[in-house]
Amino acid sequence: MKWFIWTLLGVFIALQPSYIHPDEHFQSLEVLATRINGIKGSIPWEFTPVHSARSFVPIYISYWWIFQFYGTLSPLWILRLIRLQHFGLYFLVSRYALNHLKHSGGQAEFMLQSSYIAWCHQSHSFSNSLETLLVLIALSLYSDLMQTPYGKHAMVKSAVLSVVVTLGIFNRITFPVFLLLPSIVLFFKFYIRSRRSLMVLGLTLSLSTLSFIYVDTMIYGGSHWIIAPWNNFKYNLDESNLAQHGLHPRYTHILVNLPQLVGPAILFIQVPRKSLRGWFTDIPVLSVFSGLALLSVFKHQELRFLIPLAPLTLMSLKLNKYWKTYGLKVWIGFNIIMATVMGVLHQGGIVPLLDVMREEPLGVHIWWKTYSPPTWMYANSELISSTTNFVDNVEKVDNVPFSSIHDHVVDLKGCDEKLLNHTLNQFLLQNTNVQVIAPDSVAHRLESLQDSYQFQSLQSWPLHLDLDHINLSSKLLGITRYSVARR
């Protein structure tokens, strides 16, 4: 009965309109909506033919069928359906993994079901969420293969494993880091004695890789073969490229991100009384070690990169005697708070406002101090989207076509009031309909512009938390769209 309660809570959180990170839209849904449904949007650099650094295969497999309902269902319901799919798949795959990885105890099942990571991050359309599912499936197959009796082969499972591995690599180039150490154990415990299975694995891996390369080449329309994971790998090897996305100390994953995944359970860990041999053959533990160590080599370290480690870590924890007395209550409280913050409130007003605004005539929408609006949800085939650029570390709007005064969405990101003022002035000189969408946490900063402009509130959404511009002297929650006119 308890698992049913946690599942219902997970479904409720999954259906909320929170917005955790722009990649959940722009590296999947935005790309498919523009290709399948003929609307205009913002295509990230990874999916441009010049860079071709991400594969189309995983996102078509994941979302193509849902986008067939585009037009029948609103973008908001498309998003909800996608999140239900992700949460449902995680629920099924995690239970499958628990059984196959021999960690099917009640504690492990409870922690996987009651984790805010499962409710929030896993239900959102991140490539990391799909990576988690594929890692769990692959490791479950590893466990099955290692238990194959001597003299027996496992050619079907090897073929399935090769397809899962190929899909994982083409989904995210980080996928192999979670399998490195477990793969060494698998080779010496099974494949070294089953050459037929190894040949099937290699052959199917080659065929599936060639198939994925062919599909990407056809979609990108390149004159040469497109190997998206290789292009992505080359990009990430250059630290100057990573610097554009933010550099972090190499200990960030270990000291900051992993504790956020595990939460207060880290305070109740019991030092395991296992032999070294036991550690060296524990598949989830080996995956955690290899994933954490290799991902820490790169200086761009975000929490979502470790999402696949969440279920593996939680199912492997051994907790001390104080867990049931104190830890359980703290764990539940922590996950409910984090689910409320990240799964309900975080940037939670952007999607509801978009759902209303897409039904109205669109002049110029200026988004300020928010995450980038997922423009696919405008469902507009004439949409023009533009944003800021940087020249010598100075933010500018050189690439904004101010002559476009209809169906124009401008993402000003976190620019200062001076650049906002310049942008408003350029558009209002042409007597167009201009709206500004901004979180209530920065409403006081619009006051400096009120001598020149009149801001009339059109609509507000109270369940919006802007963690990037917290000001205790202003409202913490809410987002408002304003109609702007000259005084």
TrEMBL record:
UniProt record, GO biological process: GPI anchor biosynthetic process
Catalytic class of the enzyme: transferase
Pathway it works in: Glycolipid biosynthesis; glycosylphosphatidylinositol-anchor biosynthesis
Subcellular location: Endoplasmic reticulum membrane
Keyword Membrane part of the UniProt annotation: yes
Molecular function, one GO term: alpha-1,2-mannosyltransferase activity
Pfam families: Glyco_transf_22
EC number(s) from the headed UniProt entry: 2.4.1.-
Entry GO terms, CC: endoplasmic reticulum membrane
Domain of life: Eukaryota
First and last residue of the signal peptide: 1-22
Keywords: Endoplasmic reticulum, Glycosyltransferase, GPI-anchor biosynthesis, Membrane, Signal, Transferase, Transmembrane, Transmembrane helix
Bilayer-crossing regions: 63-82, 125-143, 163-188, 200-227, 278-297, 332-354
Topological relation to the membrane, as annotated: Multi-pass membrane protein
Family stated for the protein in its record: Belongs to the glycosyltransferase 22 family. PIGZ subfamily.
Name the UniProt record assigns to this protein: Mannosyltransferase
